[in-house]
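Input/output pair, single chain:
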Amino acid sequence: MDARSNGELTAVFTVDETERQLIQRARLGDKMAFAEIYRLHHQRVYALCLRLAGQASLAEEITQDCFIRLWEKLDQFRGDSKFSTWLHSLSVNQALTSLKKHRSFWARFLPLSDSSAETCSDGTEIPDTSLLDKKIMQLPERARIVFVLFAVEGYSHEEIAALMHTTAGTSKAQYHRAKALLKEMLS
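Output:
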């Protein structure tokens, strides 16, 4: 698309066109293009990983796993959907895979308490977010993952069941458990 400015012909790119060009360059091995894709999408992927992991340090590691996976799978992006949608799906799948590899972290859950201290399940301070987000991070792993995927990300219980290799009924039970725990924590 072209536009005239002060009598000169200048190129005008939409965000989608620029992103498409970055994707194409990254597919060809251009690390600078991939770095720009990372810069554009890092915060969103990190926020998703933080909600799913409940620990800042683990979320950072999982975010890196997501972008490594993106580098490996970039050729599979067909353009049928928005890149951000495809990256979100890839990130959810990678985050769940990474969480399975880090089960030992979940053995150290702090018991639920009346304490007003705002900490993640590993005892680290929670970054400045809303009270609800802080409480979500304190939920047990499976309840937190189901709650985030269903209530925040809009997945159906059937989709969650497929991602977590369980049943829709189990997903619903975990969601209701998360809601009950959140209600108790917030009261």
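The chain has two domains: 1-107, 109-187. Residues 1-107 form a domain with the Rna Polymerase Sigma Factor; Chain: A fold (CATH 1.10.1740.10).
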